[in-house]
Amino acid sequence: MLTIAWNYGGRDEIVQAVRTIISEGVSAEKVDEKLISSHLFTGDIPEPDLIIRTSGEMRTSNFLMWQSAYSEWVFY
C-alpha cells in the first residue's frame, strides 16, 4: 500500500487522538497502544515497513511519529 501525506504533523495527530479518547470518556486504565493507534488519523491503514525521505534531509520531521517506531528509513 502506498500512502502519501500532505499538511500532516505527527504531534498534532497524537494530540487529536488523545483528545478524542478523553472526550469519549475512556478511563486511564483502559488506554493502551492499540486504543491510541485506532484513534490516529492513520488508524485504518497498516504501519509502514519502509519510509523513504527524498529531500536529502536526515531527519524524520514530525512524520508518522507513532507509526514509524519499527519502520526502516531511507534518506536520499
Helix/strand class: alpha+beta
Query: How many domain modules?
Result: 1
Largest sheet, in brief, is: 2 strands, parallel
Oligomeric state of the chains present here: single chain
**Radius of gyration based on Cα positions:** 14 Å
Q: What's the SSE pattern?
A: HHEE
Uncertain stretches: none
Explain this structure.
The chain has 76 residues and is an alpha+beta fold. The protein has one domain (10-75). Helix content is 26%, strand content 11%. It contains two helices and two strands, in the order H-H-E-E. The chain has helices spanning 10-23, 33-38; strands spanning 50-53, 72-75. A two-stranded parallel sheet has the order 1-2. The longest helix is centred in the N-terminal third of the chain and has 14 residues, at 10-23.
Please provide a brief summary of the model.
With 76 residues, this protein is of the alpha+beta class.
Main traits of this protein?
2 strands; 76 residues; 2 helices; alpha+beta; elongated
